[in-house]
Amino acid sequence: MPARLAQQPIHVSVPTSNSFDALAGDKDTAAQDDLDERVALALRLIDAVLDEDDRLVRMLVLEEKVDAWVQDQQGWTALHAAAYTGNVEHIKLLLRKSNAVWAMPDNLGCTAGDIAFSMNHDRAYEELLAEGIRAEMLRSVLESAASSSDAEDPSAMAVDAEPSTSDAPKLSTASDNATFLSSRLIFTADSRGQAVALDAEGNGVMMNWEEGIMRRTVEALAREGGWEGRKGRRREELVSEEERGEREGLKVLNVGFGLGIIDTHLQSYAPTTHLIIEPHPDVLSFARQNGWFDKPGVRFYEGTWKQWMGDLESGTEEYEGWDAVYFDTYSENYADLHRFFELLPDILSTSPSARFSFFHGLGATSRLLYDIYTSVSEMHLREIGLKTEWEEVDVAQGVEGRWESTGEAGEGERTKGEGEKKYWREEMVGRYRLPVCRLEM
């Protein structure tokens, strides 16, 4: 500031309380008018995109800098509108030059990519898919960097270790693993008679309709691993053959017991060693009650896979070469699964027949998100030397709503499907994609 301005006398008039109210009112009115104008321009942009008025669209995006994330009454943004028309140039413009959000859902839960897919606009869908893949790969890099930084910074770890206060927001059992593990589970049946395990919020932790997925997964692992011939054989005979060197042993690892569905299918091949990693006390109690702790060759690690990984590093647990590894946890996100991927080269057998699979429910409410996470997971697996092949599974098998039923059955007061939580939007996502992964030698 020039010295002469600092030397000038300053005259201050103190306003009355009424003056403050007037000023505040003027500011509120001005702010509301500005907001109304911005919303009006955003809605105008949606209309311009639907009309494919290229000149107006470009003017609103490039000159007016319109907020492209604003939604209309049905929840559509300008990007949804561009996906509806299939105008690839408008999609590119909105993604590159505006603040459009590629993953924003409308009132029906549809992203712009879902709209493009439903309209058979292939080029528009591919553009939105590529954007989503880029964004998710970048997010994975940033999350990995943040995780490494926190691990190296003791002060950051100390902050995380502090107990939460009573003012902290309540965490969900479906998205926070610690909250889930400290909550109670209910083992019951849904309104269609399917066995389910529900968390404290009524979310399906494991549902019996997944049986088809689990059976097909084990069949694929057995086929690819060359141990189909074990199915139905007496365990004693297989052990005798293994001891005589006539047959290789079979070591299987499952992360997440649930209702024990996949472990039941794995047991039909009489594995030599069957390790199950399961941290939830209610699930462990359920497993004990159903005789799993007494099955030959079965061992439970009563903790999380991250704790198991720490025990591997400390030497408490032994590194073994597993012939088949399956991963299906609850209340963890893709970052957790990605971290488990990085462990695979150290725990899979060096045999070319060793295989890995996981429950691919990633983004299961959106065709776009499901396609994105199919691609992202395959790319991350490729980075660590695993090749992934996908099989499609028609789990519904013609049974309407079979994948939707995850809530507890009522006492006759509930109509079919009413009040139950949708888990899988089959009409949007399509068939389940079963991953079978192997190390490339």
From TrEMBL:
Its domain of life? Eukaryota
- Using the record's annotation, list all stretches that form the RMT2 domain: 171-441
The UniProt entry's GO biological process terms, in alphabetical order, are: methylation
Residues of the region (Disordered) are: 145-173
Q: Which UniProt keywords apply?
A: ANK repeat, Methyltransferase, S-adenosyl-L-methionine, Transferase
Write out the transmembrane intervals. none
Q: Where is the composition biased (Polar residues)?
A: 163-173
Biased composition, class Low complexity, residue ranges = 145-158
Q: List the GO cellular component terms.
A: cytoplasm; nucleus
InterPro entries from the xrefs?
A: Ankyrin_rpt, Ankyrin_rpt-contain_sf, RMT2/GAMT_Mtase, RMT2_dom, SAM-dependent_MTases_sf
**CDD domains, alphabetically?**
AdoMet_MTases
Question: Molecular function terms in GO for this entry?
Answer: protein arginine N5-methyltransferase activity
Q: Where are the ANK repeats?
A: 74-98
User: Is DNA repair one of the keywords?
Assistant: no
Q: Which Pfam families match?
A: Ank_2 (PF12796)
Cite the PROSITE patterns for this sequence: ANK_REP_REGION, ANK_REPEAT, SAM_RMT2
Report what the protein is called: Arginine methyl transferase
Name its species: Rhodotorula toruloides (Yeast)
